[in-house]
Amino acid sequence: MTAVYPGSFDPATYGHIDIIERASRLVDRLVVAVLNNTAKQPIFSVDERLEMLQETCNGIKNIEFAAFSGLLIDFARDCKANAIIRGLRAVSDFEYEFQMALTNKILDDEIETLFISTSAQYAYLSSSIVKEVATFGGCVESMVPDVIGERLLQKIKTRK
Ligand code: PNS
């Protein structure tokens, strides 16, 4: 079975990495797909986001990394994926995730969306929270791997 795990990953957090590790144990091939969306004005370029993901997940054998733009379902089809993986943190995620899952199902009935619930210690965590904490000088050690935290600080410094 092939699954796509899509996201903005701007930057990837321990929550994302936890889902990647757990999803990779369930499927034969996991494609971690970074959305290339200029409208969202990400802090990291797609290449930087891919690089950080690769660095932090380099022990996992059955994963690939790719960028995609346009519709996720088209990308998933190109990958010959059977499923799309999404992490669920809280009830507040559900409405948007459910809408996306139903939309993708309408677009391609053969590709299922599978939800993996977050590990409890990461339920509060999001890329936006990490960026906000880092921007105001807070410690993000428990939120992202060191390599990502360092690059984030660097990025914030050069932006000021
Ligand atoms: O990490 P994110 O930002 O919550 O990921 C959202 C993502 C990338 C999965 C979503 O925005 C997406 O799939 N975008 C591609 C456009 C698309 O396919 N839209 C239709 C499905 S609602």
Discrete helix count: 6
Q: What small molecules accompany the polymer chains? A: 4'-phosphopantetheine
Q: In percent terms, what proportion of residues is strand?
A: 15-25%
Give the N-terminus to C-terminus distance in angstroms: 45 Å
Q: How would you describe the oligomerization state of the chains in this entry?
A: single chain
Order of helices and strands: EHEHEHEHEHH
If you compute it from the alpha carbons, what radius of gyration comes out, rounded to the nearest whole angstrom? 15 Å
Work out the helicity level: 40-55%
Gross morphology is globular
Mean pLDDT: 96
Class computed from helices, strands and strand pairing: alpha/beta
Sequence stretches where pLDDT stays below 50 over 5 or more residues: none
The main pleated sheet reads as: 5 strands, parallel
Question: Based on DSSP secondary structure assignment, what is the total number of beta strands?
Answer: 5
Task: Describe it.
The protein is built from six helices and five strands, in the order βαβαβαβαβαα. It has helices at 14-26, 46-56, 72-78, 91-107, 127-135, 146-159; strands at residues 2-7, 29-35, 63-68, 83-88, 112-117. The longest helix is centred in the middle third of the chain and has 17 residues, at 91-107. The protein starts with a strand and ends with a helix. Bound molecules: 4'-phosphopantetheine. 4'-phosphopantetheine is lined by residues 6-8, 35, 71-73, 100, 103-104.
Provide a brief overview of the structure.
By secondary structure, this protein is an alpha/beta fold. The chain is 44% helix and 19% strand.
